[in-house]
Amino acid sequence: MNATPVQLSVLSALSVAPYLVLGFLVGALMDRWRRQRTLVITSVGRALVLAAVPVLILTDTLTFGTLAAVILTLGVLTLFADSAAQPLLPRIVPRRRTAGSPAHRRSARRSRHR
Question: How far is CA 83 from CA 4, 6, 10, 11, 87, in A?
Answer without folding.
Answer: 33, 30, 24, 22, 8
